[in-house]
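Final report, closing paragraph on structural work. Over the funding period we assembled a curated collection of sequence-structure pairs, and we close with a single example.
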Amino acid sequence: MEEKADLVIVLPIYNPFDGWSENFNAHLKEIFQLFEKINIEVILVNDGSSIDISKDIDNLLLSFPNLHYFSYDQNQGKGNAIRYGMNQFNAAFYVYS
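Its predicted structure, as stored:
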């Protein structure tokens, strides 16, 4: 486990829709602005997507230093992706979708 965060947001992704990263980018900016005094870490877990999202991920990682990306090749289910993400940081609170 890595560092301690106040809040960790875990988001599993699997074959996201076209334009997802722009939507994600806008909402993540809003979250960080609303809660600027809270140490928030965001974890994206790619649960074996069959489409290439590497360019989207690269752009997001450049924009958000508190964003962490993990991926595995074979789909293991949403629950596994959430557990995997939660195990990456020690936090006071976790939120997942």
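The first strand starts at residue 4 and ends at 13. Helices lie at 20-34, 54-63, 78-86. We thank the funder for supporting this effort.
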